[in-house]
Design goal:
Elements lengths: L3 E3 L2 H11 L4 E9 L7 E8 L4 E4 L8 H7 L5 E4 L3 H11 L6 E3 H6 L9 H9 L19 H12 L1 H14 L3 H15 L20 H21 L3 H4 L2 H10 L4 H6 L4 H15 L18 H19 L3 H4 L2 H13 L13 H8 L1
Parallel strand pairs: 1-4, 2-5, 5-6
Antiparallel strand pairs: 2-3, 3-4
């Protein structure tokens, strides 16, 4: 199938006029993110079942018509494994497309692995073998070859019939509404933005620190996160998290001690004195990090939930990993023991009637 390569504002407006009454469009992004905090958009792929296009974001300056389509709730947006795409849209367009449906999530309701690849699903449901040889392309480099463009457009050409096939099968099995709900929950979760004050919680083994050491980790992790965002540098290319933890643990007082803890020469030159200055500032009182496996009856409750998921899976045919993940177990246990916060996901939405008799 032919596609249009859009390289200027006028072409984009004209294309959007052709598709703005569509019931659904398939979308994908190609981006580069190696040493940067943000993904850098290199190419947009779009298909409405009739008109296919590659949009070159490097040369487009007016996105108004395209953003109107992204924000139109009457147009479903088909993606496959959309979590990274969400980051791209948030950074590049400052929005998340409305009405997102993810083929990876829909496929998981048909007893496929949760991380099923696009190519494997296209092969299974459409009998199509997709060429994935251009996966490592530098999508910011121009010109793009015809092979690269064909690889990119295929990601939406076959996504459209794949999604229609999955929707039909799920409707036949009465799981389509549940799959749509799961898409909404996943999108909401992936859309959450981390606050700088929470950066210390993402540091490996942060739970091992207490008192002033945890307070120092809080301060320097916040500094690293804010700097990474401001200068668009991947977090570990500012200071590696292992080194950050050591700094909070051993509290160096000189550049030489930072060097002994593993900070590289360039990092010391750029950030060394700032780190020492931060360590000398007042230390906030940070409550100890409570690990979920220290909660009362953690193993007992966890085992009961896993057993319930096995029973539900045998009754419904749903993938056990879809029904219950470690995140969902931890969320439920925290809610049950702490008796505060939002009702856990296994007691809301499509999971509620399945788990309620085992959890309440």
């Amino acid at each position: 199938m032919t596609y249009q390569f859009i390289t200027n504002n006028e072409q984009l407006v004209n294309y959007c006029l052709k598709i703005n009454n569509s019931s659904a469009i398939a979308l994908d992004t190609e981006f580069v993110r190696t040493r940067t905090f943000y993904p850098h958009l290199g190419l947009l792929q779009i298909f409405n079942g009739e008109f296919a296009a590659l949009i070159d974001p490097i040369s487009i300056t007016d996105w108004q018509a395209f953003e109107a389509i992204l924000n139109d709730p009457m147009i479903e947006k088909y993606f496959h494994s959309c979590s990274e795409d969400i980051e791209v849209f948030l950074h590049h367009f400052n929005c998340i497309p409305s009405s997102i449906i993810d083929s990876q999530i829909l496929a998981s309701f048909l007893d496929n692995p949760l991380s099923s690849g696009y190519a494997s699903l296209a092969k299974k449901y459409l009998g199509v073998d997709l060429d994935k040889s251009e996966t490592r392309t530098d999508w910011l480099k121009r010109p793009l070859t015809e092979k690269q463009c064909q690889y990119a457009i295929n990601d939406v050409l076959y996504l459209f019939p794949l999604m229609e096939k999955l929707k039909m099968l799920l409707a036949d099995q009465n799981w389509l509404d549940a799959a749509y709900q799961e898409c909404q929950m996943v999108i909401a979760r992936k859309s959450e933005v981390m606050f700088p004050d929470d950066a210390y919680l993402t540091i490996k083994n942060s739970w091992q620190l207490k008192g002033k050491n945890l307070g120092q980790l809080f301060k320097i992790a916040r500094f690293r996160y804010q700097l990474a965002k401001q200068q668009d540098i991947a977090l570990n290319f500012v200071i590696h998290e292992e080194v950050l933890w050591k700094i909070a643990r051993y509290l160096p007082s000189s550049l030489a001690e930072l060097d002994k803890l593993g900070m590289k020469g360039k990092e010391i030159r750029l950030y060394g004195q700032k780190i020492l200055d931060i360590l000398s500032e007042p230390i906030p009182e940070i409550p100890p990090i409570r690990r979920i496996n220290t909660y009362p009856d953690f193993k007992k409750i966890s085992d009961e939930l896993k057993k319930a998921a096995q029973i539900i899976s045998s009754k419904t045919g749903l993938n056990q990993d879809l029904l219950l993940s470690r995140r969902l177990i931890n969320q439920y246990i925290k809610w049950k023991i702490d008796k505060k916060g939002d009702v856990p996901e296994i007691l809301t939405g499509w999971r509620q009637p399945l788990f309620s008799e085992y959890c309440l």
